[in-house]
Amino acid sequence: MSLFSAISVSASGMSAQRQRAELLVENLANAETTRTAEGGPYRRKDAVFTSAPVDSPFQSTYASLLGGASQGVQVSEIAVDTRPPERRYLPGHPDADKDGYVGMPRINPAEDMVDLMGASRNYQANVTAMTAVKDMIHRSIDLLK
Q: Model confidence over 20-36: pLDDT tens digits?
């Protein structure tokens, strides 16, 4: 793998983790949303990651020398929770049914906060890897001077 391919792999990881973090923040913001435009409570969303080939600017030229395409990561789909909503007894709530129960999103804020910290750390790990590659490139250039 070339150094430029390593940067492309890290960039794909950063992009995927950014999308994951956006979904987690959306989940947290809507943890108490009982009414949406689609009807019913908010549905939890999760990012599904898959591996995907990444292109670096020099990879097409040197693909035969590099031994094939590098694999990065991408968000292949956004999974929406299809389970029935959690029912809470809140008889005074405007969205309560005739029995006084309200459909609530199936979101655990503590779990989403832990996932958000994980996404942030994964993003930072990709930044660190990209910085290390950048330093290697600078040192290589200095050696060639």
A: 999 999 999 999 999 99
Question: Domain map of the chain by residue range?
Answer: 3-144
- Give the torsion through C-alpha atoms of 141, 142, 143, 145, to 10 deg: 90
> Which of 114, 36, 123 has the alpha carbon at shortest distance from 80?
36
Q: Are 106 and 4 contacting, i.e. CB atoms less than 8 angstroms apart?
A: no
Tokens representing 96?
A: 């309560």
Other Cβ atoms less than 10 A from the Cβ of 13: the count is 22
Please write the tens of the pLDDT for every residue from 63-98: 555 566 678 899 999 999 999 999 999 999 999 999
Give me the amino acid identity at 118.
G
